């Protein structure tokens, strides 16, 4: 009897060992460097950066093949002759065809838009939904120099505002504050800003009671495009549509465009295959992915998810507060490491320190 038990025990352990090896093969174990190790790595790299056109072209090609981050930038009602001309230019420069925004071609009335953040829910495009689509592609392509501005605390006292504003196109994340006290660090110009439905829910009570504070707060972004993932999760659809109505009824300068859930899903897969294992990508990484497909040159600011800075001093989570996100939802350190590899390869540029020396670098042609 004792011998039989030992034999069974060995068999169980052998089976578990095989399963563990299979798991490690499929999901290999890796260690994220510590904050201090990241700081040391960035300091070793220094401020030197060299543009790599081959790398830029490669990533544009990869993103086009996986996600087609241009043709679906906005929910458009039709492809007018002007729109067709723009698509021709887009195709020649970056092949902008399928997944960033929804067009009549890929989102007709009756089409099911499957929520990318949920498994079993979808929204069927109806007459009302279709009326929210803008008439034509909102952007003039190709975009040249783009600034993608995250909200990391590393921006505080960075004096990057002037450099950010010098870009041809400025993208920002999640309706960040742009009051005068922050202008020197984050700039003032905005061409596109994301607005997650959760912000509408938390900051503006889902727009169920009053629209005034929401409409007034949006003036900080000028005549920009408000990019909303209205069809990522079902609870976010109604607040997004209320935001649309609030700005439309107030004759606001902003234009709301809704994200294509297929684009968001495919970009998530793209980065997961490259080592980002969070439940969902951060808004910042979505925007960088978009910029790599839309822009000739991309510089990212405020992407620093670590608790200490290059001077080994504490860094707040955001440049405007230190409220931490829910743990386990995003894999911010993994995202940073992917972006840093692109920085080192010259595919995009990351600003993680002080920008006061920007003028000197431009004189030196860097």
Question: Could you describe the 3D structure shown?
Answer:
- This protein is an alpha/beta fold and 366 residues long.
- The chain has helices at 2-26, 35-45, 53-66, 81-93, 127-131, 161-165, 183-186, 197-204, 212-217, 237-249, 261-272, 283-294, 332-344, 358-364; strands spanning 112-114, 122-124, 143-149, 169-172, 192-194, 225-228, 255-258, 295-301, 349-351.
- The protein has a single domain (31-67, 142-364), classed as Glycosyl transferase family 29 (sialyltransferase cstii, chain A, Alpha-Beta Complex).
- Helix 3 (53-66) crosses helix 12.
Counting H and I runs of at least 4 residues, what is the number of helices?
14
Query: Structural class, from helix and strand content?
Result: alpha/beta
Annotated CATH architecture:
Alpha-Beta Complex
| Percent of sequence in beta strands | 5-15%
Extended strand count: 9
Report the C-alpha radius of gyration, rounded.
22 Å
Query: How many structural units, i.e. domains?
Result: 1
> Strands of the biggest beta sheet: in what spatial order?
7-6-5-4-3-8-9
Distance between the termini: 77 Å
In round numbers, the mean pLDDT is 81
| CATH uppermost class | Alpha Beta
| Global outline | globular
CATH topology: sialyltransferase cstii, chain A
CATH homologous superfamily placement: Glycosyl transferase family 29
